[in-house]
């Protein structure tokens, strides 16, 4: 079935997804539609990706059969009320809002709607995204595979139980921010020792990328991969000991806990 893909809200996450589906060739930009509160962002995204834009949300709903609700969760009730009557029966609505449950949205829609709850991250923009997805009971198995293919066009996909969506949001949706902090800190340290910033970012970022690939592509536990870097009596174990002393691991676990606490509010 031919699908027009719509985005209500063209903020950071929607822009990353639009970039992902257009650059991967998954869809033609002519089949992508978007609306946003401020016109300036719409003009920018239209210029960058040559997609169609509307000044109102209802037109996106009426013209599309995959609809991303890419606004923040506090805006969901108003947006759902605006588009409710314009949604086509064959449409699949994709929620990406952290903390927004399928049940909450179903309550606002007040009608039978096919819903996919997806938790992507911004690396979708460069084809290396991670998206966790769950569905409501109205989405067929065939449609689930169609949604998988969409998200796989710009990264990896896991179907998970909706009860795990908050932790998927913290560990998949938010974690790129933690990793950027790590890369920035590594690069700052390199600059402190006289390395030019462009060299520093490249060396730090590629080391993170390669390490992630080792975890994904070797059968080894991350602890074993760490051990392989630490030569006996060498330099790395000095750094590892320092990180342990400074509570590196518990700082990460606490960061995830803070994320989960916020999602409960
Ligand atoms: N950023 C990320 O890495 C991730 C975000 N998400 C989820 O994506 C959603 C959006 O987050 P993010 O992109 O970061 O936030 P942004 O603030 O960047 O984007 C939200 C967009 O929604 C627009 N908007 C607000 N109200 C309306 C409305 N009534 N009608 C149409 N558009 C509206 C805003 O427009 P304007 O700015 O013009 O007011 C803005 O462009 C959130 O629910 C978040 O949980 C999920 C995974 C990762
Ligand atoms: O910061 C946020 O609320 C969103 C959810 C996951 C990433 N960004």
Automatic annotation (TrEMBL):
Annotated ranges, domain Pyrroline-5-carboxylate reductase dimerisation: 162-264
GO biological process entries: L-proline biosynthetic process
Residues noted as binding NADP(+) in the record, renumbered to the chain: 8-13
Protein name: Pyrroline-5-carboxylate reductase
Predominant cellular place of this UniProt entry's protein: cytoplasm
Lineage: Bacteria, Bacillati, Bacillota, Bacilli, Bacillales
Chain's role: Catalyzes the reduction of 1-pyrroline-5-carboxylate (PCA) to L-proline.
PANTHER family (alphabetical): PYRROLINE-5-CARBOXYLATE REDUCTASE (PTHR11645), PYRROLINE-5-CARBOXYLATE REDUCTASE 3 (PTHR11645:SF0)
Family, similarity comment: Belongs to the pyrroline-5-carboxylate reductase family.
Organism encoding this protein: Oceanobacillus zhaokaii
């Amino acid at each position: 079935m031919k699908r027009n893909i719509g985005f209500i809200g063209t903020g950071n996450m929607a822009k990353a997804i639009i970039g992902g589906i257009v650059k991967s060739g998954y869809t033609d930009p002519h089949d992508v539609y978007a609306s946003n509160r401020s016109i300036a962002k719409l003009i920018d995204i239209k210029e960058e990706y040559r997609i169609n834009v509307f000044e109102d949300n209802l037109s996106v709903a009426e013209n599309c059969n995959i609809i991303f609700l890419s606004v923040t969760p506090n805006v969901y009730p108003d947006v759902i009320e605006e588009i409710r009557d314009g949604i086509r029966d064959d449409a699949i609505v994709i929620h990406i809002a952290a903390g927004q449950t399928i049940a909450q949205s179903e309550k606002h829609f007040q009608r039978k709607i096919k819903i996919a709850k997806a938790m992507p991250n911004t690396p979708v923009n460069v084809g290396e995204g991670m998206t966790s997805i769950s569905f409501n009971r109205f989405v067929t198995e065939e449609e689930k595979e169609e949604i998988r293919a969409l998200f796989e066009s710009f990264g990896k996909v896991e179907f998970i139980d909706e009860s795990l969506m908050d932790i998927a949001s913290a560990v998949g949706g938010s974690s790129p921010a933690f990793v950027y902090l790590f890369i920035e800190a590594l690069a700052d340290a390199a600059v402190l020792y006289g390395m030019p910033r462009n060299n520093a970012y490249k060396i730090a970022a590629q080391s993170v990328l390669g390490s992630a690939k080792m975890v994904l592509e070797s059968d080894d536990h991350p602890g074993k991969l760490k051990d392989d870097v630490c030569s006996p009596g060498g330099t790395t174990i000095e750094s590892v000991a320092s990180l342990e002393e400074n509570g590196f691991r518990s700082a990460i676990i606490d960061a995830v806990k803070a994320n989960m606490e916020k999602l409960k509010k």
